[in-house]
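ok so I'm stuck.
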Amino acid sequence: MAKRDKSLPRIFGQSRAASTRAPDAERSSAAAPAPSAERTAAIGGTITATIAVYSVKGGVGKTTTAANLAWCSAAVGHRTLLWDLDAAAGAGFLLGIDPERRLAAGDVFTRERDADDLIRPTEFERLEVLPADESIRTLDRSFSALGKRRRLARLTEELGARFDRIVLDCPPVLNELSAQAMRAADIVIVPLPPSPLSARAFDLVAREVASHARRHPPILPVHSMLDLRRALHRQAREADPDWPAIPYASAVEQCAVQRRPVGALAPQSPAAQSYAALWRAIDRKLAERAG
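replied:
not stuck anymore, here's the structure
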């Protein structure tokens, strides 16, 4: 891994080797701040938090990761909202939510429609979805007209009265909506299949977080679709052995076929156990920040 720029956000899960290669950058990297007062309202002893799953590269398992993490969150007892911000609307699909004819997802941001009116229940206890639709594609123009740089952050704060955890499936682009997601997030999860292009995408994400969030959240890179039969994947794993990893597995592929999270389909599978471990790491980091 290349030496990290001192201006980039703190990356947790970084290997000792990487830390050794860049001690000055690691020491001078800004500490992850505690969430703002509005975002840390206690709900039944739980701190409300927003988790953004983001990559600027498509096909990295972003939406699958978001849906499975949301399920894991609900499974351990958090009232969880999966907010689909990707116009492809895959997150809701993976949890069995069919798209509606009305194009109203963008109206939440303009305050023309209340988010509660669009939130849909799933078959899973404590897990609900705010689906995306094609209206998401025009949000950049809406944000420009509104001049509201923290509209998404304000909306997640309001939804904190109802949910303990809000998981954002972010659009795989660099635009104002992704910038809004970075400002709203308490932590950013970045799925990365081992490849040179994914490494470049991660650098772009880190810079995006740093440039759009004044008090930027920590970033957790995750090796996704990891296949240790492949030399490149083994090398990537050896370079950053402390990063969480989600294996390339048929159980994960079945999520889209069965429209159910892997933890519900194959709870004992390595993939389900990996998502559960990743969620525990996220919860621990959120608890550290809240404390």
